[in-house]
Structure formats: C-alpha cells, structure tokens
Amino acid sequence: MTTAIERLARSMAVLGGGVLSLLVLLTCVSVLGRGLNSIGHSNWLAAISARAGDVLISTGVGPVTGDFEVVEAGIAFAIFAFLPVCQLYAGHATVDIFTSGLSERLNRWLVAFWEVVLTAAIVVITWRLGVGMMDKISNGETTFLLQFPIWWAYAASLVAAVVASLTAVYCAVGRVLRAATGRDILPASGAEGA
C-alpha cells in the first residue's frame, strides 16, 4: 500500500512541478512582452528611430492576455499537488523546542495527534473545494479575459486535493499505528526522529 500511495503522491508532485514550470515560463514571456511593448512606445526609442519603435510595436509584442488568470488557477493546483508528498514525508514545518525534552513514545503520540488534526483539516478543505466547484458549475462563472469556466480550476485543484486527502488519511493511520505499536509503515522522514 505504501508503494501505491508513494507513487501517487510523487506523481502528483511531478505534475505540480510541471505546471509550476509552465507558469514560470508564461510569466517570463508575459513580462518580456510587456517590457518590449513599453520600449516600443518609449520616447527615447522614438528619438533614436521612430521606425524602430513602429516595427517593434507592429510585431504584436505585449503581455500575454489573461496571464494572471492562468497563473492564479495554476498556482492553486500546484499547492494542492505538492501537499501529498509533503504529507507523506512529514515535510511540514515543526517546532521541536518544547517537545525535544519529552520521551520518544510521547513524541510519537504528539506526532500522531497532529497528523490526525491536519488530516481532518485537509479532508474538510477538500470537501469545501468540491462544494465550491459545484457552485461554480451551477452559476456558470467565467474568468474576465479568457472566459474559461472557473470550475475548471476548481476541478483541477479538487483532483489534487482528493489525492492529498487519501495520502493524509493513510499517513494518519500510519502515525497512529507507529505511536501505538512502534511499527512504522510510512517512508522515513527527518521530522520524526528515530
């Protein structure tokens, strides 16, 4: 079971990384286009060569239309896509200053407790994301510039959130099992100690 969950979490992280890379590329192209357009309209280029400015502008350079709409939808997906692998390897930030003096057994129970709390939060977020997606489908809301249905972004994020929920439930069971029996079914992480 761990191998299947691990594969699913890693695949989602790779997909999220691919989307994030494309968003970075889109942002760079948009900023470059906006900068070239500004240069084409600048007074200093017109003073040097009005023809050069006209030629630059006639190429159609400018920002990518709706870039912020795509970035907004893509970032939401990427955040949910990275959550499963972070959950699986206990990659969330922890503060050990108060727990470093406690016994290993008590620390295992604290980790299990917070894992269950975080799992509950992820499941509730996934549920509410699904409700939000259904609302966006029913009202037909679209983005301002590109006019793509907003529910598409919700649906993509919901797929990643469902994977995060499955991973979180598996991790919660694994951490409680480790606290109760000392047997570990989850991949090793640096956050849990030995």
At a glance:
The chain is mostly helical and about 190 residues long. The chain contains 6 helices and no strands.
Account of the protein in words:
This protein has 194 residues and is an all-alpha fold. It has one domain (2-181). It is built from six helices and no strands. The radius of gyration is 24 Å and the shape is elongated.
Low-confidence stretches: 190-194
Mean pLDDT: 91
What's the tally of helices? 6
Proportion of residues in helical segments: over 70%
Tell me the span between the first and last alpha carbons. Answer: 22 Å
Strand content: under 5%
Write the layout of secondary structure elements.
Layout lengths: L1 H39 L2 H6 L1 H9 L8 H22 L15 H36 L11 H31 L13
Task: Looking at this protein, list some descriptive labels.
194 residues; mainly alpha; 74% helix
